[in-house]
């Protein structure tokens, strides 16, 4: 089975420019291929991850992946998928984002030298305006450019000349990599088809019609309910653990719909066909066990954040389900209770009734606090407290940083010690 056969089985191919030619190429050589990403932010989210999973599969199959950080193209803005002009970022912000995304790529693709990260600012910034117009602008027909979906979709509301030229710059990227690095394949999302084919046309015009350059796009990822994949009520799911904690990341995958989980196993894991077929059967016969979702969460979280992050996420999940939070680390508390009600407290010892009412306002009155304590409805750091004379000492657990209160079966509160 070739890498292309595997991608077809995984449902990961939308369009190819020359299927027969590309099939022959991957059978006979280690192919150079690339995916580009503009540094419009300082982290990727899981939507960005989709084409890079394809690049990773090519890497594992012995091919030569290149990652193009768009320091040049990112400074002007890709019109793809946008209904209006992007706000230009300062070059200082662009460079900051470049460094952050480069670090994420190095984590995902390893340190063994089997891939290369390049920045298109390195060659685009050296091009003069006259060179751009004479060497490349002359080769692009405006009528053809207007027919590309990425431009046509913006004509009604308008598009600046700056963003209009984006497809030329991306085409120059492909040509540069073709000439300098023997890169023959560009991979991108479905919305990049017009830009990719423009790059192939440029290579053919400069290097000849028989130049072997190819394009491959990935289907638009939609959930079973028809909505766009990767968005939650809280916004994007980020790869940066400061924006989306590993626990939140793990929970995102764990909570996937039965109708979607097999598709995501194919897209986002490196499990074999037999392993995925076995999990698909369990979705049909034992959906209540959610084994497929758990395996999906484990695999993707380990790929993005490492094995320790999976262990932490599982510890937090088990603790929150059982209420046994005493053995969680301070870092696990920070992740698991990030979105729960919280209050700041001092480190001084206080009577539990006073602390619940006067310090934290977790209880509305001292009468209610005493009643809940007497009824066994209050747990402090995982331990049931039934003595209204008990003291709260914030220094005793979680490095003195937190006190966890559970009222009833499911209501958690986090007290952060100042």
TrEMBL record:
Give the EC number. 6.1.1.1
Motif ('KMSKS' region) on chain: 228-232
Residues annotated to bind L-tyrosine = 34, 166, 170
Q: Which UniProt keywords apply?
A: Aminoacyl-tRNA synthetase, ATP-binding, Cytoplasm, Ligase, Nucleotide-binding, Protein biosynthesis, RNA-binding
Looking up PROSITE patterns in the UniProt record yields: AA_TRNA_LIGASE_I, S4
Residue ranges for motif 'HIGH' region? 39-48
Show the catalytic activity. Answer: tRNA(Tyr) + L-tyrosine + ATP = L-tyrosyl-tRNA(Tyr) + AMP + diphosphate + H(+)
Q: Name one Pfam family in it.
A: tRNA-synt_1b
Gene3D superfamilies, per database record: HUPs, RNA-binding S4 domain, Tyrosyl-Transfer RNA Synthetase
Where does this protein reside within or beyond the cell? Cytoplasm
HAMAP family in the record: Tyr_tRNA_synth_type1
> What is the protein's name according to its record?
Tyrosine--tRNA ligase
Organism per entry: Secundilactobacillus hailunensis
- What's the gene? tyrS
């Amino acid at each position: 089975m070739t890498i292309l056969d595997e991608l077809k089985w995984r449902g990961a191919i939308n369009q190819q420019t020359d299927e027969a030619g590309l099939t022959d190429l991957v059978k006979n050589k280690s192919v150079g291929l690339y995916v580009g990403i503009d540094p419009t932010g300082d982290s990727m989210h899981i939507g960005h991850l989709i084409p890079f999973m394809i690049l990773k599969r090519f890497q594992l199959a012995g091919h030569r992946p290149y990652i193009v950080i768009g320091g040049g193209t990112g400074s002007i803005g890709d019109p793809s998928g946008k209904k209006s002009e992007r706000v230009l970022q300062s070059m200082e912000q662009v460079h900051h984002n470049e460094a952050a995304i480069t670090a994420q790529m190095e984590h995902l693709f390893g340190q063994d030298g089997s891939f290369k990260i390049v920045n298109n600012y390195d060659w685009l910034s050296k091009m003069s305006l006259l060179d751009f117009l004479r060497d490349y602008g002359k080769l692009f027909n405006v009528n053809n450019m207007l027919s590309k979906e990425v431009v046509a979709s913006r004509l009604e509301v308008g598009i600046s000349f700056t963003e209009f030229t984006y497809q030329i710059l991306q085409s120059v990227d492909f040509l540069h990599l073709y000439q300098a690095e023997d890169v023959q394949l560009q991979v991108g999302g479905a919305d990049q088809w017009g830009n990719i084919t423009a790059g192939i046309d440029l290579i053919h015009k400069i290097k000849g019609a028989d130049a072997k350059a190819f394009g491959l796009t990935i289907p638009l990822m939609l959930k079973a309910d028809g909505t766009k994949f990767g968005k939650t009520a809280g916004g994007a799911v980020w790869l940066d653990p400061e924006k989306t904690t590993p626990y939140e990341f793990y929970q995102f995958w764990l909570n996937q719909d039965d109708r979607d989980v097999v598709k995501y196993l194919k897209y986002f894991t490196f499990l074999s066909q037999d392993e995925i077929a076995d999990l698909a059967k369990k979705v049909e016969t034992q959906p209540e066990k959610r084994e497929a979702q758990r395996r999906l969460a484990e695999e993707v979280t380990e790929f993005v954040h490492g094995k320790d992050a999976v262990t932490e996420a599982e510890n937090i999940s088990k603790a929150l389900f059982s209420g046994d939070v005493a053995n969680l680390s301070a870092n696990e508390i920070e992740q698991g209770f990030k979105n729960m009600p919280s209050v700041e407290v001092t480190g001084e010892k206080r009577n539990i009734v006073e602390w619940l009412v006067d310090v934290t306002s977790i209880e509305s009155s001292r009468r209610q606090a005493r009643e809940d304590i007497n009824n066994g409805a209050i747990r402090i750091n995982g331990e049931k407290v039934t003595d209204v004379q008990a003291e709260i000492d914030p220094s005793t657990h979680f490095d003195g940083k937190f006190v966890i209160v559970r009222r009833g079966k499911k209501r958690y509160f986090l007290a952060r010690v100042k």
